[in-house]
């Protein structure tokens, strides 16, 4: 690189030092030289696509930031912003040469650069999440990144068409909205129009041409109107600057799209701006304007009293202008104007001295409260696409500003209702919302919130959650998502509960000694074996029948062979059908197959009777079983009796009715445990204020069962205990 190449950048560096010295006299501007030299050495012979030395880019970025009156650290970080990414210099080098704050900014910018923005929603959301996080650590990082992008967009012509489109898309999706949110209108407008130019070259050119033609045609009218207002203000002895301003092309185009209008129908593409010295002058001017022309109703907006969330302040009104068409007039102070144009960047202008990474004053913190909200949201959405959609809809669109009763400003999409407001305050407030007051009057939930409304949400602890109708009323994507989540979760919980019950019942059916399978760790092992990360997801899939119990039982045998092996042995010992000979004696017949009837489930001690069947040998019933009374052919009946040496367990069902009282179930179950009677399954329901429990358990004989029933009756709430 020869010296000639650097003459231009050398001059820019001198200018930067000049600006910084004037604004921050205590800054040691030799640090700027040092950063410049390091960047020149580091980038060496690197060239931009245009063929120019690479160093032109960081110097240009630093120069724009100096013009924004950003502090010296920001300018230095800008000079070094591509050094970690593109050269051999490291974070530690920059800490050693400068300080941690500067090194941190440069490294964060490199991290954002490395993220690959793609059209896939997942990575877009991740990209935004990372940017937002870095912003919250030091807002200067994002300001450098915005200006970096601005300079790259200005020099995009050297890139391939594909690259131009990709960068433009990204600029429109992410950078322009962030500039808007930070209140940096000047950067937002330029970024938008540059991206517009590359994405829709023909539309852009045509609109640009239309605007130019109209400007020429209206030139005299505009000049006259400006002069008319200036003279009036002079008469009122108010000092003010009056001029015309045009919307940027992208804004005009967006408005045409949104209102389905032609360019000629967009009357506010152009407005008169009046910049004065203090707030009271703003209102006096507003009065003058309203005296001079007819006001178009409902167009007046007082953003001085209720600033936008990005800090924007101004009075807007629309009048019928001198030529009979609507004319928007914007009135503000010089300080407001700078904040409106430069947003957070303007903040540095009113700050004396340095701004350190950690030192953030309260006002500034309030200014970027939306940032914290965004971070909060980014962690609270189920999917990246939900987050992205909400952010695009709710954060980067036109908004209405309302107050909480405490005076906190809440920003919502235009057309929002109190439910949107409730969900913005907190999801729980939304879910328990039963009504709303606006400016102390009860309003319906579909009331459209107006600028400056003070909104109070009425909630109830017993509210059953949102109504599905709300989905048609709310405007913000945030509220919509939260309401949908509520229903999704409620449904999910139902399915989880159902799944858990199904599995529980299946395992209990296996018998008491399989109960070990129901231990938390065994169930978790089972869930993992089906690739579920947690039990809830596992139960959910059982609940919605994506997993069937047959598959699960097979898996259980594979996973817990020891339990099944032990059980198989016990089964031979205890299964009544296999041990029938020991338990039941059939008079006069030896070695005959018997089984216990399922209708009455006899247990040792019950009076029993046998019924011969065609296929299954003898079926054993209780003598009082209704099915026996219905047998007319008495020849089928056989005398049977219990063998004394029984050691099997028999299933029996109990019906228990109680007065409803919390905790009574525990007391009812206690005798089962005390008597060591295993419960196989249980269920409960409430009928006419009474609780009805059905319990399947295993007992050895009637004596034990009678003892159990006696114990259950001791619980005061128990009304009735029946054998099923
Ligand atoms: Mn760069």
Which molecules other than protein and nucleic acid are bound?
manganese (II) ion
**How would you name the CATH homologous superfamily of the domain at 3-198?**
Hypothetical protein af1432
- The tally of helices reads 31
* Proportion in helices: 40-55%
Strand ordering within the main sheet? 1-2-5-4-3
Radius of gyration: 40 Å
From the 3D structure, determine the CATH topology of the domain at 3-198. Hypothetical protein af1432
Structural class: alpha+beta
Principal-axes geometry comes out as: elongated
- The percentage of residues in β strands lies in 15-25%
Salient structural properties:
724 residues; alpha+beta; four-stranded mixed sheet; elongated; binds manganese (II) ion
Structural account:
- There is one protein chain.
- With 724 residues, the chain is an alpha+beta fold.
- Among the domains are: 196 residues, Hypothetical protein af1432; 149 residues, Beta Polymerase, domain 2; 84 residues, no CATH class; 74 residues, ACT domain (Alpha-Beta Plaits).
- It is built from 31 helices and 20 strands.
- The strands form 6 sheets. A 5-stranded mixed sheet has the order 1-2-5-4-3. Strands 12-14-13-15 form a 4-stranded mixed sheet, with no helix packed on it.
- The termini are far apart.
- Manganese (II) ion binds next to loops.
């Amino acid at each position: 690189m020869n010296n000639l190449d650097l003459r231009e950048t050398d001059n820019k560096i001198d200018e930067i030092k000049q600006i910084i010295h004037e604004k921050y006299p205590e800054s040691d501007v030799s640090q700027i030289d040092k950063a410049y030299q390091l960047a020149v050495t580091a980038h060496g012979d690197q060239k931009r696509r245009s063929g120019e030395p690479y160093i032109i880019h960081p110097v240009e970025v630093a120069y724009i930031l100096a013009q924004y009156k950003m502090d010296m650290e920001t300018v230095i970080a800008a000079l070094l912003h591509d050094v970690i990414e593109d050269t051999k210099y490291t974070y530690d080098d920059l800490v050693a040469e400068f300080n941690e704050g500067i090194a941190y900014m440069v490294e964060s910018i490199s991290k954002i650069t490395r993220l690959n923005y793609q059209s896939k929603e997942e990575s877009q959301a991740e990209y935004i999440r990372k940017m937002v996080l870095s912003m919250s650590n030091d807002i200067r990082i994002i300001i450098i990144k915005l200006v970096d992008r601005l300079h790259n967009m200005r020099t995009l012509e050297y890139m391939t068409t594909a690259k131009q489109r990709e960068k433009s898309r990204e600029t429109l999706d992410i950078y322009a909205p962030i500039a808007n949110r930070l209140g940096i209108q000047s950067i937002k407008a330029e970024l938008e129009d540059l991206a517009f130019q590359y994405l829709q070259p023909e539309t852009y050119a045509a609109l640009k041409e239309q605007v130019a033609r109209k400007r020429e045609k209206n030139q005299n009218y505009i000049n006259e109107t400006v002069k008319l207002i200036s003279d009036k203000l002079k008469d009122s002895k108010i000092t003010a600057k009056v001029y015309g301003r045009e919307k940027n092309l992208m804004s005009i185009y967006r408005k045409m799209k949104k209102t389905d209008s032609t360019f000629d129908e967009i009357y506010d593409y152009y407005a008169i701006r009046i910049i004065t010295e203090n707030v009271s002058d703003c209102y006096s001017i507003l009065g003058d304007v309203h005296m001079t022309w007819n006001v178009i109703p409902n167009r007046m907006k007082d953003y001085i009293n209720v600033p936008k969330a990005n800090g924007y302040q101004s009075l807007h009104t629309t009048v019928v202008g001198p030529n009979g068409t609507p004319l928007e007039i914007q009135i503000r102070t010089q300080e407001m104007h700078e904040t409106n144009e430069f947003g957070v960047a303007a903040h540095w202008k009113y700050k004396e001295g340095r701004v350190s990474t950690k030192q953030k004053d309260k006002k500034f913190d309030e200014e970027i409260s939306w940032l914290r909200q965004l971070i909060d949201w980014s962690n609270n959405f189920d999917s990246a696409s939900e987050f992205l959609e909400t952010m695009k809809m709710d954060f980067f669109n036109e908004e209405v500003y309302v107050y909480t009763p405490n005076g906190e400003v809440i920003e919502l999409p235009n057309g929002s209702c109190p439910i949107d407001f409730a969900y913005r305050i907190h999801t729980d407030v939304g879910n328990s919302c039963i009504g709303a007051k606006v400016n102390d009057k009860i309003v319906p939930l579909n009331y459209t919130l107006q600028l400056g409304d003070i909104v109070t949400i009425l909630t109830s602890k017993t509210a059953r959650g949102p109504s599905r109708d709300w989905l048609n009323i709310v405007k913000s994507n945030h509220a919509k998502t939260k309401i949908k989540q509520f229903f999704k979760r409620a449904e999910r919980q139902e399915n989880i509960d159902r799944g858990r019950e199904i599995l529980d019942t299946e395992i209990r059916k296996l018998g008491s000694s399989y109960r070990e399978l129901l231990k938390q760790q065994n169930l978790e092992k089972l869930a993992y074996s089906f690739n579920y990360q947690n039990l809830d997801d596992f139960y959910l899939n059982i609940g919605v029948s994506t997993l069937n119990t047959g598959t699960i039982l097979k898996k259980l045998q594979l996973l817990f062979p020891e339990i099944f092996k032990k059980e198989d042995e016990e089964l031979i010992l205890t299964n009544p059908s296999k041990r029938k000979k020991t338990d039941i004696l059939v008079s006069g017949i030896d070695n005959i197959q018997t089984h216990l009837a399922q209708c009455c489930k006899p247990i040792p001690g019950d009076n029993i009777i046998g019924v011969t069947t065609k296929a299954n040998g003898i079926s054993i019933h209780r003598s009082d079983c209704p099915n026996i009374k219905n047998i007319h052919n008495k020849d089928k009946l056989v005398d049977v009796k219990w063998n004394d040496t029984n050691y099997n367990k028999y299933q029996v069902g109990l019906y228990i009715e109680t007065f409803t009282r919390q905790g009574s179930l525990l007391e009812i179950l206690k005798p089962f445990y005390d008597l060591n009677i295993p419960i196989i399954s249980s269920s409960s329901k409430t009928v006419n204020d009474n609780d009805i429990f059905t319990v399947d358990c295993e007992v050895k004989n009637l004596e034990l069962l009678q003892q159990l029933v006696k114990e259950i009756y001791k619980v005061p709430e128990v009304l009735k205990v029946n054998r099923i």
